[in-house]
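Hello Y.,

Per our agreement to keep a running log of every chain we model this quarter, I'm adding this entry. I've kept the format consistent with earlier entries: sequence first, then predicted structure.
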Amino acid sequence: MKRNRGTDSSGVLAPGARMRRAAAGRARAGRSRAARVARARAMRARQGAGARRGRLPGGWVSRGVLAAVLLAVVLFPVTNPASGQQPAACRGCRAPAASAQRWTARLSGDWAVGAGATGTVPVTGQAYVAVGGGVAVVGDGLTVTAYRLRDGVQLWQATLNAPPGSLVSSVRAWPGVITAGVVGPGGKTRTEMVLDSASGAQLQQYPAAVFGGAVAASAASTVVVGPAAVTSYSNATGKIRWQRTTGPGQSWRADGDILYVAESAGGYLGSAPVTSLRVINLTSGTERTLRSPPGHTFSGTLALAADGVVLFTSAAGVTAYSGSTGGVLWSATSAVPEGIDSAAQLVDLTVAGGALIGVDPLTGSVRGSVSGATAGASARIYVVRGKVALGLDSGQGGEAWGYSMAAARVIWTAPGLPWPHYFSDLSGLGGSADESGRTVVVAVCAKQARPGSTPATPAGTASDSASASGSATASPPATSASPAPTAAPVQLCAVPELVALTV
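Predicted structure for the entry above:
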């Protein structure tokens, strides 16, 4: 900003010079006053545009340490972001609330408010969310509720028929159907239930691996990762359309209509390297083997698959391999895979220093970034769509905001989201964010219950196995639920809501 300039001070001048200097001084003073007025108006315009807390949503929510990444990415693949602060150059760049918030719908059941990023969660057990196929669906206990994605109208609510002690451990939304993974008592078995997305009527149910479940589905058929095979079923008859045998407990990742299944001794619970990948077409069932580079195994564990590229992660960083040849395409030292920005066709990584970068999956070239400068712990980034990162401020004054990698600033905010909670599915097939769109749903608590209130549903009705078996992905526990509420005194929520945002 330019400094204001007043009239020049003068020494002793000749009378004619003093007159000329006085006239020049008056002219400069007039220009100075006009400049001050213009600057004041500009300042008010910027303040009216929503300049407020300058904080860049930097890094991503930590979900494990790199030292344990060989196991952690398989058991808890990394996709959630962490908090950060915007650099001084971006202070005050938050935009006013625009049209990011689409609708609000009431959540059923008993919900509570947890500290920090926990936000609004069920009183017992965990909730699971999926968005896609024109609906947003919530699974809690054995209850599944569907909302119309266009306006939030509740379409139906169904109670699944399962043995006592069973719990929903994943929900996924597909064109025409919803699939719900139900883990039995003890958490050692799983059944994949297929529901009509328009009515909630149960169409079929199929055996699934505890860390498997549906990887593709439509009104006509469902493909399920089972305990030792990938199987396509007809939803009309329940009969097998095709089946491909796999080793037990193997990690997997889906890339559109292609499924990659790792081949390693002992599966994801073992320490043996991955020597090859089974590549299965989820439409036709055709299969081929993708071998690791000659003389080498794949580096680490299978983490992501996007645009014909498979990413493996290890303590050293990320290595990208061609899904066609198995050859190395690129690598990134000290990087952790975070997720896929399907709208921009980028893979998101956290790199040394905490910055989040979006890279071309084929070349590794950086196409966008968010600073990893440390900020207050109340601000976190959770997903990127179209190079816009969705961030949430936690707590009673919670709000959502979108940080544009292209513009290097916050481009919209949506205030009034008290105690927001983002649901994560580390497989990329469920969770708060629509895999192929820009809609994100979060849970909030519009109003807390009065102190001393008790939940309508008796505590303890949910099995403790929920936290152990609450996984939605095939490769290890990748769930569409965030951590369950802590054992600390629970503040009940009187008005829990589901809020839809457009990133």
